[in-house]
Every structure is written in structure tokens, then in C-alpha cells.
Design a protein that fits this description.
- The chain has one domain.
- The relative contact order is 0.21.
- The longest helix has 27 residues.
- The chain is an all-alpha fold.
- It contains eleven helices and no strands.
């Protein structure tokens, strides 16, 4: 339970940090690159003795970790483009609703039980996510004709579902062979390497710049980001099933993020959000039973 609570708190904090990025005009991508670098430094600082061993990188789960580093980078780019062309609401909704991929994977391949109450809770959780993020921004009519722009929400859905499902698969399959911290470090190390390469190209092309704001923002983001991934892995390791963890986690983050937005950023509530929060609470009760 402690790992679950930490996962909810750190993911909510990450959302708050991104809000401040917007407020203080911090460039997201340079800060994300610094964030990946900080996550890698934390991991290497904690596990350097194991990571320096050649045998460590020959473990069966390592390709999954490195692949996730690549997918993390792709996922960030797709999400940023989806926000630009379809708005924050639709992007956030597709990221959270993608939990259904992991739920189905856990049921089909790991034979996790899912009775009427749990399925009802999962459906209510998805409905809550949609309602809370209902204020979609209308995309430009000229951009609608481009197929890749139309496909962005679906791609965000698939990529986020793939990330959660891969994390769940690795921790459920190699639970005795890999510690969450080692796995997190492998993910962030690959993401940092790719980020540095892509960031250097963009810097040369003058598409981005690194200032004190981006450096500070990346450092502040890096610590909770590392802890959030580690805590999710730890929750799986301590026995949380995929059909329970990911629906509860996403709904709890939505509730905490909405409450934080209301109290800290004075965001307005509407009927959709209130109904969504009620459904989210009901979903938590039904899934947890």
C-alpha cells in the first residue's frame, strides 16, 4: 500500500511541476532531457556496483528496459504533438484510458480474475477519466486532413498502454531476478542517451535552448519521476495485480490532480468533472472490493 500511495503522490507532483513549467515558460523537451539524465544519475549512484558488472547487462529483462527507454522518448514526442494538435484534455484522456490494454493483458496472459464488480469498476474508471478531461480543444480544420495528426490520439493510447504493459510483464515474469531500481535505471539510461542525441541535434538546429530554467526544471522533475516508476514496480512486486493496480492508480492520480488543480491553481470545476470524481470514487470502491 505504501508503494501505491507514493506512486499516486509522485505522479500527482509531476503534473504539478508541468503546470509550473507552463506558468514560468520552461521549455518542456530540454527539461525532460535533463530529467532523464537526473534519473540516470540517481540510479547509477544507488546501483553503480551492479551496473558496472558486464553480467548485469546480459540479464533476460535488460532488452525490455532499454526498449522502454526508447518508447519513453517516442511517447513524450507523440504526447507533445497530440497536445499541440488536439489539446491537453484529449491527450490526458488517451494516456489514462490506455490502462485497459494492461488490464486485458493481465487477464488473458496471467489469468487474473475479473468478476462483475471489478469490470464495473474498470468501466466506471474509464468513464471518470473521460468526463474529467472532457474540455477538448478544437483542432485546426486544416490539420484535420493530415492522417498522422488524426492518428496521434490512437498512437498516444497505444504507446502508453505498451509502456504500462511492458512494465507489468517484466515485473510479473522476472520478479525474482530484477529489482525495481535496477530496471528503472536501465529505462532512464537509454532515454537519457537518446535525449542527449536528439537534444544536441535540435540545439544545433536552434529548435531548443537550455537555460537555467530548463536545468532547474529538469532537476526538480527528475527526482519524483524516478521514484514514481520505482514505486509502481515495487507495487507490482508486492503483489498488486494488473487488473487492480493500473485502474486504481490512474483514477487516484486523476482525483488527486483535480483536487490539486482546484486548491493550488484555482481551476474551475464543472458538472462533468464533479460527475467524473463521483464515478472515480465508486470505481475505487468496486475495484478494491
Amino acid at each position: 500500500m505504501i508503494a501505491f500511495i507514493i506512486a499516486v503522490m509522485t505522479n500527482t507532483l509531476i503534473g504539478v511541476i508541468f503546470k509550473y513549467f507552463s506558468k514560468y515558460k520552461v521549455q518542456a523537451y530540454p527539461a525532460i532531457i535533463i530529467n532523464y539524465l537526473i534519473c540516470s544519475i540517481i540510479g547509477w549512484g544507488l546501483y553503480h556496483k551492479d551496473l558496472l558488472s558486464p553480467d548485469f547487462w546480459l540479464a533476460e529483462w535488460v532488452p525490455f528496459g532499454l526498449s522502454l527507454g526508447v518508447i519513453f522518448t517516442i511517447g513524450f514526442y507523440l504526447a507533445s504533438q497530440c497536445v499541440v494538435h488536439h489539446g491537453m484534455g484529449l491527450t490526458a484522456m488517451m494516456q489514462k484510458v490506455s490502462m485497459i490494454i494492461t488490464v486485458l493483458y493481465a487477464i488473458i496472459f496471467f489469468q487474473e480474475s475479473a468478476g462483475f464488480m471489478k469490470w464495473t469498476g474498470i468501466i466506471l474508471a474509464m468513464a471518470a477519466i473521460i468526463l474529467i478531461n472532457w474540455n477538448f480543444e478544437k483542432p485546426n480544420s486544416e490539420k484535420r486532413s493530415k492522417l498522422w495528426i488524426l492518428a496521434l490520439p490512437v498512437l498516444v493510447f497505444l504507446v502508453n498502454g505498451t509502456i504500462d504493459t511492458t512494465i507489468f510483464h517484466v515485473k510479473s515474469t522476472y520478479i525474482l531476478d530484477v529489482d525495481g531500481g535496477h530496471f528503472s535505471t536501465a529505462i532512464f539510461s537509454m532515454a537519457a542517451c537518446l535525449g542527449i542525441i536528439i537534444g544536441s541535434v535540435l540545439l544545433i538546429m536552434r529548435k531548443i535552448s537550455f537555460t537555467r530554467k530548463e536545468l532547474a526544471g529538469g532537476v526538480v522533475l527528475g527526482v519524483p519521476n524516478f521514484i514514481s516508476v520505482y514505486s509502481v514496480l515495487l507495487a507490482i512486486e508486492t503483489g498488486w495485480g494488473g487488473t487492480v493496480l493500473f485502474p486504481l492508480l490512474n483514477v487516484s492520480i486523476i482525483i488527486c490532480s483535480t483536487a490539486t488543480g482546484y486548491w493550488i491553481f484555482a481551476e474551475k470545476s464543472n458538472r462533468n468533472k464533479i460527475l467524473g470524481l463521483i464515478l472515480a470514487i465508486l470505481a475505487i470502491v468496486l475495484i478494491a472490493i
